[in-house]
Write a structure and sequence with these properties.
Layout (H helix, E strand, L loop, with lengths): L1 E6 L10 H16 L5 E4 L13 H11 L4 E4 L2 E2 L5 H14 L4 E6 L4 H6 L4 H20 L3 E4 L4 E5 L13 E4 L3 H10 L2 E3 L6 H17 L11 E7 L3 H16 L4 H8 L7 H8 L2 E3 L1 H14 L4 E6 L2 H15 L2
Helix pairs in contact: 2-3, 3-5, 6-7, 8-10, 11-12
Length: 328
């Protein structure tokens, strides 16, 4: 199993300077660089304290300068919000300056407020995102870009620099809905599995992805499918449950109800906190969480755990007592 970290920059207490949020997170990333984690994946969000990282590209460049071993992923670049050529240039520059350590993850986004403020009509957001991904890949692969699409058209544009990794940085797309899963499989893109879906829903989407991948003539061999799981660890199960519940309450404040329907997929109406506590958050003592990860390896199957820790102590315990038991 590979293990990466889905890094949020949550600002829960506005009385704490925002600089401390970054300082704490960056210290965690320094530890990751020396302890066997595969990659840090940076979460982009806007206009709330859920994650004060509005530019994953800027943050990735800073992280590249302070690390040596860690791969650096975007989870995700909200591609519908930007001009695609700007994305292509910035991520290629990141790849060059990091020595080829960039994983590019792209997504549409699910927050209606973000879409509205960035003036992206909800009904156009999926098409804009998909076209942006196609343009970015063409920008990296073609010597000069010529493209005619629904929203963008270019003729003989010299996109520079080109990435160090060939043919381009490995690419993932966020796939929280069945429609997104099917589109990614049809194009042969690898997928990122979200931290909000129930474990059973993750297994269902992964099986659906593999079936459609084969139907479209693409191989599933040697694909990393990072699967994000919220995790709460403590010395005892009861203490970890309290951490998990606080995390569920915090997270559920920022997830729109229509997005939660995608993450569940079963049509049931449940309280958001119950959704996270029942079948999303892995919580307990180190021994209990190790057992749960082993179970998910067999049932999902989980081959790349994308850890989203719900406390600083969770990260410390995971690194010391869980990580050595789950790494291949």
């Amino acid at each position: 199993m590979k293990v990466g970290v889905l890094q949020f920059f949550g600002w829960r207490d506005r009385s704490v300077p925002v600089e401390d949020v970054y300082k704490r997170s960056l210290e965690r990333i320094r530890i990751m660089d020396q302890t066997g984690y595969d990659a840090v994946w940076l979460a982009e969000h806007h206009f709330s304290g859920y994650s004060v990282c509005p530019s994953v590209h800027l943050m990735a460049m800073h992280i590249a300068s302070m690390t040596e071993n860690l791969r650096i992923g975007t989870a995700v670049t909200l591609a519908a919000f930007y001009h695609p050529l700007r994305i292509a240039e910035e991520v290629a520059l990141l790849d060059v300056l990091s020595g080829g350590r960039i994983n590019w993850g792209a997504g549409r986004g699910f927050d209606p407020r973000e879409l509205s403020i960035f003036d992206v009509p909800v009904e156009e957001s999926t098409a804009r995102f998909r076209e942006a991904v196609e343009i970015v890949h063409a920008s990296w692969s073609d010597e000069r870009l010529t493209y005619k699409g629904q929203f963008h058209s270019f003729e003989n544009v010299d996109i520079l620099p080109k990435p160090v990794q060939k043919p381009h940085p490995p690419t993932w797309v966020a796939a929280s809905s069945i429609g997104a899963v099917e589109w990614a499989a049809s194009k042969g893109y690898s997928i990122l599995m979200d931290p909000h879906s129930a474990n059973s829903r993750i297994a269902e989407k992964l099986a659906h992805y593999n079936n459609h991948l084969a139907t479209a003539g693409h191989s599933e061999v040697k694909r990393d499918i990072p699967t994000a799981r919220l995790v709460a660890l403590a010395e005892t199960d009861s203490k970890a449950e309290a951490v998990a519940r606080r995390g569920a309450e915090w997270t559920s404040k920022y997830i729109p109800k229509q997005a939660l329907a995608h993450f569940r997929g079963d049509g049931k109406v449940v309280e958001p906190v119950d959704h996270y506590m029942d079948d999303v958050i892995l919580h307990g003592s180190p021994e209990r969480v190790i057992d749960e990860i082993q179970r998910l390896k067999e049932t999902i199957p989980l081959e790349y755990l994308l850890l989203s820790s719900l406390s600083d102590r969770t990260f410390e315990i995971f690194t010391e007592k869980v990580l050595p038991h789950v790494l291949d």
